[in-house]
UniProtKB/TrEMBL annotation:
Subcellular location(s) per record: Membrane
A GO MF label: zinc ion transmembrane transporter activity
Membrane topology, record value: Multi-pass membrane protein
A cellular component annotation (GO) from this entry: plasma membrane
Main location: membrane
Designated name of the protein: Cation diffusion facilitator family transporter
Cation efflux protein transmembrane domain boundaries: 21-212
InterPro entries: Cation_efflux (IPR002524), Cation_efflux_CTD (IPR027470), Cation_efflux_CTD_sf (IPR036837), Cation_efflux_TM (IPR058533), Cation_efflux_TMD_sf (IPR027469), CDF/SLC30A (IPR050681)
Keywords assigned: Ion transport, Membrane, Transmembrane, Transmembrane helix, Transport
Transmembrane segments: 21-45, 51-68, 89-108, 120-143, 155-177, 183-203
């Protein structure tokens, strides 16, 4: 396949669900200011922690929107041969940093309140917590389907999911402080929210690093791909197989196929079809080599 040959790798999973990000961004961004102001007035750490997490939601959703816009933008330099699709992965990595930052802030603020817990206006906490729960549930269902296809949307979905549980925590904190008069319920639930957010961030970080490390896509075994290519009629041997994820919904593969020269076109077509049908790999670069070659002309790594 020569340098002039190109494949259409447009239409990432994140791009198809961009409208969901837009609606969720408007909902979450609009509510963040309300929660922050009420959190400061009520002096509820649980509410402030949820506001901080919602700020992370706004940042994550905004970064995801920017990433999907960049991914869809054509490259005029000619140097980005895979386009800007990796912007989605970098946005997901940024979401991880924001989530961890919020967790650390909540933990530090909780420790600073030891022995100096303020009075909390539980009425305002309950009203805002309930409203936040509604906003987050709507946003969660908006992002849920796209999160199954896009790592970028998955990062945003996990943020909103964690914030939904955070809203539940805010309501519980408000109720418990109101019933018992003990403000430590507010601090304890805030710490629980911080731990949960950090845990979800680490899970997402693992997925981001797997993509950036060019590991085989989740749920895809290179040995199975190798066996599938070796079973293609006319293929004598397969080597130099590489498979990785460019961005969510875009898996890529390269391989050298040993086959008789007169079978080259048929082997290429059948192998490409097998990868697409069985593994969903629509972008594969395959090289056919003659069995009488003594050594591969490819790279030695």
């Amino acid at each position: 396949m020569g340098a002039g040959h190109s494949h259409d790798i447009s239409g990432s999973a994140a791009g198809r669900h961009r409208w969901r990000l837009v609606v969720a961004f408007i909902l979450v961004g609009g509510f963040f200011g309300v929660e922050l102001v009420v959190g400061l007035i009520s002096q509820s750490l649980a509410l402030l922690s949820d506001a901080g997490h919602m700020a992370a939601d706004v940042t994550t959703l905004g970064a995801a929107l920017i990433a999907t816009r960049l991914a869809a933008k054509p490259d005029s330099s000619g140097r980005r041969t895979y386009g800007r699709y990796r912007a989605e992965i970098f946005a997901s990595g940024f979401a991880v940093l924001v989530m961890l930052g919020v967790s650390i802030y909540i933990a530090i603020e909780a420790i600073s309140r030891i022995g100096n817990a303020p009075e909390i206006a539980t009425g305002m906490v309950l009203v805002v917590g309930a409203l936040g729960l509604v906003i987050n549930i709507i946003s969660m269902f908006l992002l849920r389907s796209g999160a199954k296809e896009s790592l970028n949307l998955k990062g945003a979905y996990l943020e909103v999911l964690a914030d939904t549980l955070g809203s539940v925590g805010v309501i519980v904190a408000g109720l418990m402080v109101s019933w018992t008069g003990n403000v430590w319920w507010d601090t304890g639930i805030a710490l629980f929210i911080a731990i949960f957010v950090a845990f979800r961030a680490l899970i997402l970080a693992r997925e981001v690093l797997r993509v950036l490390g060019q590991h085989a896509p989740a749920g895809m075994e290179p040995s199975e791909i190798l066996q599938t290519l070796e079973s293609v009629p006319g293929v004598v041997e397969v080597h130099d197989l590489h498979v990785w994820t460019l961005t969510s919904g875009m898996d890529v593969a390269t391989a050298h196929l040993v086959a008789q020269p007169d079978n080259g076109p048929e082997v290429l077509s059948a192998s490409a079809d097998a990868l697409k049908e069985k593994f969903g790999i629509a972008h594969a670069t395959l090289q056919v080599e003659s069995p009488d070659k003594k050594e591969c002309t490819g790279a030695d790594w």
